């Protein structure tokens, strides 16, 4: 069998230039967004009851991640057709880089922001902390900062993919054979991103959650419950002693 029929060559695009933004492409993107959002809801119910976030805090945390994912996804959809070769291939290459190197850049930016928040006393940029009661201003500041981090990470990776040596290496890649363009689009925009997003969204949500430094929430909760239990036992002893004194007086 001819080798050209065994693999899809980079120079022989199966997806058309507008495949990512036609009706079928938008349906794939919508399904991916719904599945990713469902994954974040499921993660909240997987959290221990003592550490489960209220719905407002959960929304504040996940909306930042959703905004960043939207920025990166929109950039990938716009960039892929403008690059030489198969736009579906370029999309999955961008997606894989965003899920690895891009996530590392965002993680470093979050840690830097948390460090600056502690050192320079800027609580508004301490990711996951919104005050008591939660303040909308803190959420907006963190959304803007996270969007800036996502934009920076995407810009760096987009510039890297424009380097001639990188393009030369990627242009030699071959993909597994997919004869149907619609199936190819579903693989690169729904199937592969769905399974990777389960991991990426889960990990990123842990980055964005507020975690007390020093003593864990579980330890604090146990101490609180023990003190409540002790108070209850003490009050019961007092009640028993009062009853005994009452009975003694009546005798």
From TrEMBL:
One annotated Gene Ontology cellular component of this protein: membrane
Start-end of Basic and acidic residues biased regions: 242-251
Keyword field: Membrane, Transmembrane, Transmembrane helix
Listed transmembrane segments: 26-46, 90-110, 143-163, 183-203
Disordered: annotated span: 229-251
Name assigned to this protein: Store-operated calcium entry regulator STIMATE
Native species: Euphydryas editha (Edith's checkerspot)
Lineage: Eukaryota, Metazoa, Ecdysozoa, Arthropoda, Hexapoda
